[in-house]
Amino acid sequence: MDLVAIIRSKIERAGEGNHFLGLKAVLRHIVTAVAHFDRGQDAADETAFTDCIYRTNQAFEGSLKEAFRVLTGKDPDKKTPHNIEEHFASNDVFRSRVLRQFKNYRTEWRNPSTHDHKLDFDASEAFLAIVSVCAFTNVLLDQIIEKLAHDRSKLESKKERMRIAKALKAKGTDLASFAANLISEFISQYKPAHEEPRMREAEFLGSLSGFIESIAPKLNVQIEVLLGTDRHYRGDLLLSRGNEKLLVELKGTSFSRQLVRSGLEQLDRYFSISGIDQGVLVIANPPYATPTIIDATTPRGRRVLVVAPRQTET
What we know:
By secondary structure, the protein is of the alpha/beta class. It folds into two domains: 3-148, Four Helix Bundle (Hemerythrin (Met), subunit A); 171-312, Trna Endonuclease, Chain: A, domain 1 (3-Layer(aba) Sandwich), CATH 3.40.1350. It is built from ten helices and six strands, in the order H-H-H-H-H-H-H-H-H-E-E-E-H-E-E-E. Strands 1-2-3-4-6-5 form a six-stranded mixed sheet, with helices on both faces. Helix 3 (47-72) packs parallel to helix 6 (123-157) and helix 6 packs parallel to helix 9.
């Protein structure tokens, strides 16, 4: 697994915009940190490991600046790095997994190296700092890509809002049917920013949430919702309308009956943990086309609508 290559690929998928040059600079800092680490190993130069951590700090601060630009829509150049860090530390902006990595890097590397100029770091510490900042940057890029896709989709969908809303009203107004038909309509016209052989979940979910907010503004949309005290149980999407709630579980891979079975079992677990009793299972993968909607039942007898490629209907 090449962490730098993964980050480079995600930066390219984030696309052009005011954020792009800043994200490329983040990548350069990470690449330079790795070069310092290699120098320390190859030349037995202990000072290189401290240089490495100063570079990972630059990558950390740069990532936060570009996240601030995208997630808040504000210019980070008018804020100090401390202001930006405090904004993310005290406001509910980051997804839970991003927040964990943010706190970890800030506590273990950023604060000690910044506030104590006498500190020197060894090879193990430099290695961990590189892994930590790469983990943070990687999950943060997912949230950045998701927000960019959301904003783009919401803007593009406005043109078709009246037509789509009218067509959906004729197909059923209960939350599950409405959500399944809304998602089906989205998939039928979804065009990712870059054509790839498999779905990129962050971009897909961001685009879907933007589409839903544009077409059905009365629906409340939340992405990656924690369903209980265990952080491993997250709903891909939670839709709310009044007192009604519905979970959407996404499978970005080719259709199979086993995939449907495992998805229904997963939703059963999520229903039990969250107390929610409505769900839609979505199976989508390139090339995207108008899907079909299948009425299914979970192993515990709960009704779930499955949105899946049309050729799978039997």
